[in-house]
Amino acid sequence: MRVKAISKILALVVPVLLSLNSHVFAVTAQEVAPVRETATAAAPETPATVAAPEAAAPAEATAHEAEGEEKPGEVIMHHILDNRVYAFEPFGEIHLPEIAAKPFGIDISPTKHIVMVWLACAVLLLVGLAVGSTYRNMSSKQASKGFAGAIEALVDFIRTDVAKSNIGHGYEKFVPFLVTVFFFILICNLLGLIPYGATATGNINVTLTLALFTFVITQAAAFKAQGVVGYAKHLTAGTHWSLWIIMIPIELIGQFTKPFALTIRLFANMTAGHIIIYSLIFIAFILKSYIVAAAVSVPCAIFIYLLELFVAFLQAFVFTMLSALFIGLATAHEGHDDHAVEGAHH
What we know:
This protein has a domain at 112-345. The protein contains eleven helices and two strands, in the order ααααββααααααα. The protein has helices at 2-42, 47-50, 56-68, 72-80, 112-136, 146-167, 175-191, 204-236, 244-287, 290-331, 336-345, and strands at 85-88, 92-95. Strand 1 (85-88) and strand 2 (92-95) form a beta hairpin.
C-alpha cells in the first residue's frame, strides 16, 4: 500500500519536474543560440581575432550564456502569473486567441486563468448533474453511497455547520450560494495542482469577483432584514449620538474591509504555496546537484504539494465560512431572539 501511494504521488510530481526542467533548458537554448549567432556574424575574421588566447573563449561563452539565460524568478512568475500562452512543455504550447473588440476599453480576450475558470464551471456542472441523476434514480428508502454520498456529506456540512451556525434564522435561502462558492473554489484549487494546470484562485481578479458577490449579497440581505432605518442604526452600533461622527466612518470602512480580507486571504494562500513548490524545485537547478534534488528539492516539494491539497479544502471552507459569518452579522438585529422566543411560546 505504501508503494502504491508513493507511486501515485510520483506520478503527479514527476511531470511537473520534467516540465520545469524542459522549460528552463529550452528557454536557455533558444535565447543563447541567437546571441551566439549574432556575435559570430558581427565579429570580423582578422588576424588579431584568430590569434586571441584560447582562454578567452570560455569567458565569452559564459558572458553570452549569462545574457541569454532566463532567471529562476522569471520562470516561476511565468508559471504563476496569468498570460495568453498555455504551455505544455516539452510538447509545445497553445496561444490563446486575442479578441480585437474591446468594449469600454476592457480586454475580454481569454487567458490561461479564464480557461481554468471555464473548466471549473464545467466540472462543477457535471458533478451537479451526475449527483442529481443519482438521487433521482434512488428511492426514499435507499441511502446514497460512493461519490454521491461524499458530495452529500459536504453539502450537509456547509448547510448545517456553516450556514445554519453562522446565519441562523432564514439561512436556507443562502445555502445555494454558499455551496456553489465552496465547490467552485475547491475545484479551482484542485485543478491548479494537476500537471499543466493553473490556479485560477491565485488570480486576484477571480478572488475579488467572488468577494464582490459576497459583498453584494451581504448588503442586500442587510437591507431586506433590517430596512433602511435599521441599516442606518446598525452603522451607529447603538452608541450615543455624540459618537456617531466616529462610529459611522469606522462601520463604513468595515463594510469594505470584509471583501478585501476575503480577496487577499484566498489569493495570497493559493499563490504562496505554488511559489514555494517552484522555489524548492529550482534549488536543484541553481546548485546543479542531483544530490540536492534527491535529498532536498523533491522530498520538500512533495511535502508542500500534499500540504497544498489540504490548503485547497481549507481555503474553500474558510472563504465559505467567512461569507456566512458576514451575512449572519449583517442580517442580525435587535429583537430577533425575542421574536423567536415569542414564536416558540405560541
